[in-house]
Amino acid sequence: MPALITLIALLAGALNTVQAGANAALGKALGQPVLVALTVSAANAVVYLAAVPFVGLGWPGASRFAQVPWWAWLGGAMGGAYVLAMICLAGRLGAAIFTGLTVTAGLVTSVLLDHYGWVGFAQHPAGFGRLLGCGLMIAGVALISMS
To answer: pLDDT (tens digit, 9 = 90+) per residue, 20-34?
Structure first.
């Protein structure tokens, strides 16, 4: 794996945790989770538009829209649900527990999706190492939750 890609992924993970705290603080200050989520969405749109010169922007033809599986259109709604959960729960749970729970749930889900090749992922069997890794993540969250 190239070093730059790894570095960007690590940075994204760190920003995800910092984002949880920033969004939770905004939610606490404003007292309106939906208003906070809309503010976050507006900030997302600004970042996306700022990225256009680097990644481009084009409009696909109608035939491409027709090829999209029905469930692929739900990704934005899933992201919105995650942001609302972050706003409402991260401040209550703390950064370690919130991030631990969401990352662990994501990892366990990803192993399941990979194992069955669901939602467009290539099939990768859930072998011993992957299952052990999931178990260790769950144990790690349990240990972090004890203190």
So the answer is: 999 999 999 999 999
